[in-house]
Amino acid sequence: MPLNTPFAVKPEELKEVLASTLGALAKSVELRLGELTVTVAAADYLAAAQLLRDAPGCQFEQLLDLCGLDYSEWGDGRWEGARFCVASHLLSVSLNQRVRLKVFAPDDELPVVDSLTGLWSSANWFEREAFDLYGIVFEGHADLRRILTDYGFIGHPFRKDFPVSGHVEMRYDPERQRVIYQPVTIEPREITPRIIREENYGGLH
After folding, report:
1. How many Cβ atoms from other residues are within 10 Å of residue 199's Cβ?
2. What pLDDT digit, counting tens, does each position of 125-156 carry?
3. What span, in angstroms and rounded, lies between the C-alpha atoms of 191 and 23?
4. Please, are residues 29 and 19 in contact by the beta-carbon 8 Å criterion?
5. Beta-carbon neighbour count of residue 65 at 10 Å?
6. Residue 48's domain spans which residues?
């Protein structure tokens, strides 16, 4: 390794740098299991993200991942905050450090947060995926449309209240000679796994 290669600062030191840099823009800066998570309000999302990208001591040049989260059943329903969250994972190549940036959409019925595509172009497809799967709208995204499901898909399949079987199914109709959509014909059911215990299982009597 070249002598001039920068080493990552300790997580505790980076936490102080992030808290100092973001100031009131950060609702919290947490260090857990060796990972740093910064949570900001939706109104401060873009400003905080730009500081994380540009400020000395931060310099998170790359957005590695961005995903949606549905907290409606988190902690067996004990969660009392906003339902939809966006989590981004940022990397500083120059300083060899990482951080997770989280923001909660203030409206559960129509979750909207700003798009990060103006800061990191890699956010483009990630935000489209979060829109497709969770219904989170990214304001300022130039081409926000479904990316994994088809254009006729109804709902957002990663939401906790989305039925496992979906709402519609598609099949080929030989009379119409085309693919058609129809209501789901699978009856909802709950499958309980069967547990088989042999005699003296595991040497226990």
Report:
1. 6
2. 999 999 999 999 999 999 999 999 887 788 89
3. 50
4. yes
5. 13
6. 11-147
CATH number for position 104:
3.30.460.80
Measured distance between the N- and C-terminal CA atoms of the chain, rounded to whole angstroms: 58
Residue 56, pLDDT above cutoff 60: yes
What lies within 8 Å, CB to CB, of 111 at 6+ separation is 83, 84, 105, 134, 135, 136, 137
The amino acid that residue 127 corresponds to is E
Please indicate, yes or no, if residue 52 is contained in any of the structural domains: yes
Residue 56 lies inside a defined structural domain of this protein: yes
Query: Which residues have a Cβ under 8 Å from the Cβ of 125 and sit 6 or more positions away?
Result: 147
Q: Averaged over 6-10, what is the pLDDT? A: 72
Predicted confidence (pLDDT) per residue in 12-30, tens digit = 999 999 999 999 999 999 9
Q: What is the pTM of this model?
A: 0.81
Question: Residue 148: CB partners within 8 Å, gap ≥ 6?
Answer: 129, 132, 133
Q: Give dist(CA 49, CA 63) in Å, integer.
A: 10
Contacts of 31 (CB under 8 A, 6+ apart): 11, 12, 15
Decide if 78 is inside a domain: yes
Give the number of domains in the chain.
1
Q: Is residue 101 in some structural domain? A: yes
